[in-house]
């Protein structure tokens, strides 16, 4: 007797079992890939947001000017002044801005306002323990407020520093108008 060619039932079941194991491994790897991709995306998006906020802060501070009726003021949690480089409004004209550090839900939040209206807030500072603003004068002395003394109202700080405080201190130091105290008259800032 001759045996007919083809697969036996047992061989077909073994092949189906191997295929099903390979498919389940592929789905598992696909799921792990999607999770890893999501984590990388969240991490890079957070880094991008943080870099964008730091750039906006630096541009806003570099564009600060000292106007007779709107001198920059600051505390360790709030910085207010007039800038020629606002983050949201058209640039070139004087815009009153305010940066504020707040603590909420165990996180530190940086809030940005133009014309007294909140434009956005950045709350991804969970790793930052004690963020604050520090102001440096022309003599290099630092203070947690600006102006550092009563009556000293006619100039900008040489440096405005956004520091994280705590043990692993990191800071973003920005010099208004390249570190040169600027006093501008309102008519010099008008745009047509």
UniProtKB/TrEMBL annotation:
Annotated membrane-spanning segments are 12-33
InterPro entries xrefs: N_methyl_site (IPR012902)
Q: Which Pfam families match?
A: N_methyl
Keywords annotated in UniProt? Membrane, Transmembrane, Transmembrane helix
What's this protein's name? Prepilin-type N-terminal cleavage/methylation domain-containing protein
Q: Which organism is the protein's source?
A: Luteimonas chenhongjianii
Upper lineage ranks?
Bacteria, Pseudomonadati, Pseudomonadota, Gammaproteobacteria, Lysobacterales
């Amino acid at each position: 007797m001759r045996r007919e060619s083809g697969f036996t039932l047992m061989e077909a079941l073994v092949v189906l079992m191997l295929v099903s194991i390979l498919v389940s491994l592929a789905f598992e790897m696909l799921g792990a890939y999607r999770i890893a991709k999501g984590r990388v995306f969240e991490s890079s998006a957070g880094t991008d947001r943080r870099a964008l906020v730091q750039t906006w802060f630096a541009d806003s501070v570099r564009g600060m000017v000292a106007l007779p009726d709107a001198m920059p003021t600051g505390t360790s949690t709030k910085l207010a002044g007039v800038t020629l480089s606002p983050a949201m409004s058209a640039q070139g004209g004087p815009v009153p801005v305010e940066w504020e550090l707040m603590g909420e839900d165990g996180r530190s939040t940086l809030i940005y306002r133009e014309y007294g209206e909140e434009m956005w807030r950045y709350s991804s500072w969970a790793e930052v323990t004690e963020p604050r603003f520090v102001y440096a004068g022309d003599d290099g002395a630092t203070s947690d407020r600006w102006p550092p003394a009563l009556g000293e109202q006619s100039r900008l700080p040489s440096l405005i520093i956004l520091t994280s405080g705590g043990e692993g201190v990191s800071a973003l130091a920005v010099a208004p108008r390249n570190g040169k105290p600027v006093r501008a008259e309102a008519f010099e800032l008008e745009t047509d």
